[in-house]
Amino acid sequence: MKTSLWNTKAFPAGAKQAAERKPDFLLVVLALLAAFILPACGGNGSKTVNTTQKMKTVEVKVPEFNADSAFYFVKKQTDFGPRVPGTEAHAECAAWLVATLKRFTPEVTVQDFKARVYDNRIFEGQNIIASFKPEFQRRIFLSSHWDSRPYADHDPDPSKHNTPIDGANDGASGTGVLLEIARQMSMQLPNVGVDIVLFDLEDYGPPQDKQAGQNAENWGLGSQYWAKNPHTFHYSANYGILLDMVGAADAQFPREGYSVYYASDVVDKVWSIARSLGYGDYFTDKTGGYITDDHYFVNTLADIPTIDIIHMDESSSNGSFYEYWHTVNDNIQHIDPSTLKVVGQTLLTVIYKE
Ligand code: AHN
Ligand code: ZN
């Protein structure tokens, strides 16, 4: 027996009628196509496509920064003790940072270098670099320093001025935030390439009561080396963000001088995203002073427009930075996970909106 679709005998009466109407339906569909969809291939259509693309951009899911995880990464660093170049704690922390980053990306580079400090002693340093989407042209450069200062030379107690500091805020906080960002990127890659560069030997500048050696080049030795010898040939990034002291309770991040001078667009972008997330109390509209930090060398030597998110506070006892800056009280007890969250969520939003 014939069983073609149009064999009316194969269908009950109602179905037969419907089946026989099918050609009419096809005609209606074709008419609809002609009326609405085909003209859309012209000028109007491109608008529709644009709208769709815009919606896609807005819908990008920004991961949730985990402040407890970031805090754990900060504490792990301080648990090694002060990470002063030349010490065992420094070497052990370097190994831990490398192993941790390797859990999040296969692209981890250790850049070994030698640097001369203010009093001519020579130290071995290690810049630690982790890359995500290394093949991408469009890149963001994120950094912090991971060494800690050998001298608590701003401590109110002069007998502590030669004591190395934990650097929970000054060093470990920014590094902890970046490790958590690396962890998030390992779970969901962004649309842009990202390099995380952890600088060594940032904080071996001369003690404040020393007369000699008070020049900018005695700070940021790791960033100076990297900016002159980038880890890849002709390295470049569209812009950079440095984190320094991003873990104190109620931190204040005014717009730092060199950041505004070299990269005002980046400052505007980051501060407006922070504000949109409700973090305007942290990312203030005040203008801060000019700080000789790692971003200064990235701007001047590597030509990458780079900003510094740094806790500055004119009302603090040291008159410029957060109150326990370069004191023995810069320890894990003074780290507040809420501030790590503010900075980390802002950065993740910046990255995932690219
Ligand atoms: C000076 O005070 C010259 N530079 C500050 C850079 C720094 C030190 N950031 C953290 N520790
Ligand atoms: Zn410091």
Question: Structural class, from secondary structure content?
Answer: alpha/beta
**Mean pLDDT figure:** 88
Bound molecules: N-[2-(1H-imidazol-4-yl)ethyl]acetamide, zinc ion
Number of self-contained structural domains:
1
Distance between the termini: 63 Å
Give the proportion of residues in helices.
40-55%
Instruction: Estimate the global geometry from the Cα principal axes.
Output: globular
Query: SSE string, helix = H, strand = E?
Result: HHHHEEEHEHEHHEH
Spatial sequence of strands, sheet with the most strands: 1-2-4-3-5-6
For the biggest sheet, the summary is: 6 strands, mixed
Poorly predicted runs of 5 or more residues: 1-23, 26-30, 36-51
Tell me the total number of β-strands.
6
Radius of gyration, CA atoms, in whole angstroms:
28 Å
CATH 2nd-level architecture: 3-Layer(aba) Sandwich
Q: Strand percentage, roughly?
A: 5-15%
Number of helices: 9
CATH topology: Aminopeptidase
CATH superfamily: Zn peptidases
The CATH class turns out to be Alpha Beta
Describe the structure.
The protein is an alpha/beta fold and 354 residues long. Helix content is 41%, strand content 13%. The chain contains nine helices and six strands; from the N terminus they run H-H-H-H-E-E-E-H-E-H-E-H-H-E-H. The protein has a six-stranded mixed sheet, with helices on both faces. Strand 3, helix 5 and strand 4 form a beta-alpha-beta unit. It is globular and about 55 Å long. Mean pLDDT is 88; it is low at 1-23, 26-30 and 36-51. The protein binds N-[2-(1H-imidazol-4-yl)ethyl]acetamide and zinc ion (ZN). N-[2-(1H-imidazol-4-yl)ethyl]acetamide binds at residues 170, 203, 205, 219, 244, 291-293.
